[in-house]
Design a protein that fits this description.
It holds the Pfam family ACBP. By secondary structure, the protein is an all-alpha fold. The protein contains four helices and no strands.
Length: 89
């Protein structure tokens, strides 16, 4: 398995972990994860919330992470999951 495949596998595992996680997470962490996920998946569609304030927070999170590459977004997502969620279990 090469480095890119390993990164994609770890990213997918981190995403699945977050999707299966049932305890509440802090909003700032969720926004960072959201931005890194969107960048990692090159998905720049409009945030889909019916609440304008939530859309504004999501858009702001994306703006703050705008200079992050796809690969870096995956790495940052994995690091956040490991540091902020898994470490506290």
């Amino acid at each position: 398995m090469n480095t890119d495949q390993k990164l994609h596998k770890e990213f997918t595992e981190a995403v699945n972990f977050v999707n299966d996680y049932t305890d509440p997470l802090p909003a700032d962490l969720l926004l960072k994860l959201y931005a890194y996920f969107k960048i990692a998946n090159r998905s720049f569609s409009h945030p889909g919330s019916r609440t304008p304030l939530i859309n504004a927070f999501k858009a702001n999170a994306l703006i703050q992470a705008k200079n992050v590459s796809t690969k870096e977004a995956m790495e940052k997502y994995i690091a956040l999951v490991n540091k902020e969620i898994k470490q506290n279990l």
